[in-house]
Write a structure and sequence with these properties.
globular; Rossmann fold; 33% helix; alpha/beta; 21% strand; 10 helices; nine-stranded mixed sheet
Length: 339
């Protein structure tokens, strides 16, 4: 474990850093999405569904350049943590997000959160995983939730079909790099956890398939399938306009099986050697629990440390005591791996 910095509390250190880069303080305000342009759906990333087609070989070969992390402004300050609106660079794109920084001295481990699908036109920066992010910060983790491209104040893509798309996983890998390169005084970016929910679980799986040692611990919450064909069947087949765009660009899992195999994290999960915990409800009507069983089996086949937790009667989003149990398990797991 690395030595803690014994000086100011994390929020005060952050304020000092902000002042050093020209931040102009003010009263706390809600995070409001910028409006850089309309959201355009494409064959590889249809923003009306959770469907995202990526090329895992392209993600593996890609040279990531996450950089330019900025604490744009303080949003809220509380007893347990201070919240900042942030941005960073992912390739040619600017990506926004929200970072909750614990109110304690020293450098805390980093947990990067990947949210699930919602209509980007209604999405607000930092939405979807607010209670999970806050709980992690209360447990002493610097919790960074990325908005992804096409969301909130992030850069919009133009909607053209991309032969070898990188998509949201590129933004996730670059977020980890951007925090590391920023050398913030309150975060130890050598200790990294990932948490992905629903579509965000797929983002995490694709990133891990390409970069098996991206993190030291991984949590998946009601994730989509690691097999691209499952996601095609669930969100593309039967939607004529989207199906036509996808098939023109990439064919179908039946007509072009090799293309769709390369779009699946499943084949790369045997290389993942970081511990993974998967949490799935038995009554999930959005992402069937069998998908998580398949993912867990693929991780185990490579000798991975994986556990699949079942939540009886819970749907796609957990509630009540089940959600509390999920977060308690998650906090214990991350502390054990990152402290």
């Amino acid at each position: 474990m690395k030595a803690r910095v014994p000086a100011l509390t994390a929020p005060l250190l952050a304020v000092a850093l902000l002042l050093s880069v020209g931040f102009a303080g003010g009263t706390a305000s809600p995070v409001v999405a910028a409006r850089p342009g309309p959201v355009l759906g494409s064959a590889h990333n249809d923003t009306s569904t959770p469907f995202n087609f990526v090329s895992v070989p392209a993600l593996t070969r890609h040279r990531y350049d996450g950089r330019g992390l900025r604490l744009e402004r303080e949003v809220t300050r509380g007893l347990a943590f201070t919240r900042y609106a942030v941005s960073y660079r992912s390739g040619r794109l600017r990506i926004t997000g929200v970072m909750d920084v614990p109110s304690r001295a020293g450098r805390a481990p980093l947990v990067v959160l990947a949210h699930g699908w919602t209509d980007p036109r209604r999405y607000r920066s930092g939405a979807m995983l607010t209670r999970e992010r806050e709980t992690l910060a209360e447990h002493g983790f610097v919790a960074l939730q990325i908005d992804y491209r096409n969301h909130a104040g992030s850069t919009r893509e133009d909607g053209r079909a991309v032969p070898r798309p990188l998509g949201y996983p590129e933004d996730l890998v670059n977020a980890v790099l951007a925090v590391s390169r920023a050398d913030l005084p309150f975060v130890d970016a050598s200790r990294v956890g990932l948490l992905g929910r629903s579509m965000g679980g797929g983002v995490v799986l694709n990133a891990l398939a390409a970069r098996p040692r991206l993190a030291d611990a991984v949590v998946l919450y009601s994730p989509v399938s690691a097999r691209a064909a499952d996601n095609y069947d669930r969100w593309v087949a039967g939607r004529p306009a989207l199906q036509a765009r996808v098939e023109r660009a990439y064919g179908t899992p039946t007509s072009h099986p090799r293309v769709w195999a390369r779009a699946s994290a499943l084949g790369g999960l045997g290389r993942v050697d970081v511990p993974v915990r998967i949490h799935h409800g038995t009554a999930d009507a959005v992402c069937p629990r069998r998908w998580s069983r398949t993912t867990a089996d693929a991780l185990r086949a490579g000798g991975g440390d994986v556990r699949l937790h079942r939540y009886t009667g819970q749907g796609h989003r957990f509630h009540g005591s089940a959600w509390s149990a999920f977060m308690q398990r998650t906090a214990r797991f991350l502390h054990a791996r990152l402290d």
